[in-house]
């Protein structure tokens, strides 16, 4: 009987020791609730970005933002200025989409994102631009710069001239691709404010959205597939451009535009710690903007302005102008206020009037705030009256 209890006791001791050892092992393998809580708290405190900006793409109205003039290295977002230079030259007829571009030795040596250009290869300008805007190809950007300006440095000078002309005061370019600088070189710099200005200028050219909305594209006769780095194109149907950028020191950057109904917004985010954090932030900002704002067309192009302008030498001597352009503005859904249109003309306008000639301006206001203005133009030509009639008018006699 005693032996039986001794055996039972030994079994209990062995089982208790094993259970304690296993418990200690599990504790070591699995973080404590305190460690897990710390990790969760750290993730919640993670700064989503260094700066961001949301604007109405049609009129530049700022909807929200933070550190909008903070200068940061935009990384490959720099290529938006490459696109702007190219699109402006295409519009002026200085370039053609079919222009052949020969790959130089220097451009074939570029690192980072690329389409692996080989010295001596030839591609059209449009093929190169798709490589730049879809695959963010540094080698293609370099080849374009050399083709257009003769050298990388000459093209950078053009980029900075365009930035100055657009009043991008926070911006200075030192590369055509946005890669981190080598020893002795300077870093590119821009801000949310400036990149929004550039994006609005780019949207005047429909080709930019054609290029930047491409999700995948074949290159070199299908030997290479280019995948767009802007994953929001796959996630949000309203998104149709523009460009991402990243290198380790500057973080994850993006400039996005999205359209729905009569609304179009631009979101700029600089310095996110992770691509997912950046994209989630843009997604939420766009959802919020589309939910909270509506667009009101305040005036239509060709709309008659119900106030006459005096033509001192015209026949007839008075005319009603028309709006030279349409003007829309985005308002919060719950915002109230009086919208007014105030025409302004000089006292009189002399000489012959040509069709489309500017006669004055139409100020568009909400309460006392000027939202914008459009030119008032002549709907048709007005010839000069004869000398006798002009003379009588000067005497105050109108026939």
What would you say this structure looks like, in words?
The chain has 399 residues and is α+β, with helices and mostly antiparallel strands. The chain folds into two domains: 51-296, Beta-lactamase (3-Layer(aba) Sandwich); 300-394, Sandwich (Peptidoglycan synthesis regulatory factor (PBP3), Domain 2). A hairpin with a 4-residue loop joins strand 5 (216-219) and strand 6. It has helices at residues 2-29, 33-45, 79-91, 105-108, 125-134, 138-149, 152-165, 192-202, 207-212, 232-235, 275-292, 387-394, and strands at 51-56, 62-66, 100-102, 122-124, 216-219, 224-227, 239-247, 251-260, 263-272, 293-299, 304-310, 318-323, 327-332, 339-344, 358-366, 369-377. It has a five-stranded antiparallel β-sheet with strand order 2-1-9-8-7, with helices on both faces. It has a five-stranded antiparallel β-sheet with strand order 11-12-16-15-14, with no helix packed on it.
Give the strand order of the largest sheet, numbering strands 1, 2, ... along the chain: 2-1-9-8-7
The SS-based structural class is alpha+beta
CATH class of the largest domain: Alpha Beta
What number of domains?
2
Radius of gyration: 31 Å
Q: What is the name of the CATH architecture of the largest domain?
A: 3-Layer(aba) Sandwich
Low-confidence stretches: none
**Number of helices in the DSSP assignment:** 12
Shape: globular
Tell me about the biggest sheet? 5 strands, antiparallel
Strand tally, please? 16
Percent of residues in beta strands:
25-35%
Q: By CATH's scheme, which homologous superfamily of the largest domain applies?
A: DD-peptidase/beta-lactamase superfamily
Classify the fold: give the CATH topology of the largest domain: Beta-lactamase
| Cα separation of the termini | 140 Å
Secondary-structure element order, as H and E?
HHEEHEHEHHHHHEEHEEEHEEEEEEEH
Quaternary structure classification: single chain
| Helix content percent band | 25-40%
Mean pLDDT: 86
């Amino acid at each position: 009987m005693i032996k039986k209890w001794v055996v039972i006791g030994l079994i209990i001791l062995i089982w208790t020791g094993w259970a304690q050892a296993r418990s200690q092992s599990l504790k070591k393998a699995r973080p404590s609730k305190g460690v897990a809580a710390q990790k969760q708290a750290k993730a919640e405190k993670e700064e989503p970005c260094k700066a961001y900006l949301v604007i109405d793409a049609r009129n530049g109205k700022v909807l929200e933002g933070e550190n909008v003039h903070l200068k940061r290295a935009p990384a490959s977002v720099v290529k938006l200025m490459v696109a702007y230079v190219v699109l402006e030259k295409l519009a002026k007829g200085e370039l053609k989409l079919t222009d052949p571009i020969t790959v130089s030795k220097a451009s074939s040596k570029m690192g980072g994102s690329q389409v692996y250009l080989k010295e001596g290869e030839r591609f059209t300008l449009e093929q190169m631009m798709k490589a730049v805007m879809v695959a963010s190809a540094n080698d293609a950007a370099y080849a374009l710069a050399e083709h257009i300006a003769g050298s990388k440095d000459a093209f950078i000078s053009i980029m900075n001239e365009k930035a100055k002309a657009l009043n991008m005061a926070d911006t200075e370019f030192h590369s055509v691709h946005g890669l981190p600088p080598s020893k002795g070189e300077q870093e590119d710099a821009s801000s949310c404010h400036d990149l929004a200005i550039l994006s609005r200028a780019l949207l005047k050219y429909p080709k930019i959205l054609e290029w930047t909305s491409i999700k995948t594209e074949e290159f070199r006769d299908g030997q290479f597939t280019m995948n767009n780095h802007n994953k929001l194109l796959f996630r949000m149907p309203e998104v149709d451009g523009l460009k991402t950028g990243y290198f380790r020191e500057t973080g994850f950057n993006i400039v996005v535009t999205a359209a729905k109904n009569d609304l179009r917004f631009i979101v700029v985010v600089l310095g996110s710690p992770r691509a997912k954090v950046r994209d989630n932030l843009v997604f939420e900002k766009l959802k919020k903007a589309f939910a909270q704002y509506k667009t009101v067309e305040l005036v239509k192009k060709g709309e008659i302005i119900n106030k006459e302008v005096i033509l001192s030498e015209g026949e007839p001597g008075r005319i009603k102008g028309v709006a030279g352009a349409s003007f829309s503005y985005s308002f919060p859904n719950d915002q109230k206020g009086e919208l007014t249109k105030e025409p302004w003309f000089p006292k009189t306008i002399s000489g012959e009037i040509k069709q489309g000639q500017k006669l004055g301006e139409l100020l568009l206001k909400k309460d006392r705030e000027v939202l914008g203005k459009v030119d008032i133009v002549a709907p048709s030509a007005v010839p000069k009256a004869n000398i006798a009639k002009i003379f009588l008018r000067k005497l105050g006699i109108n026939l």
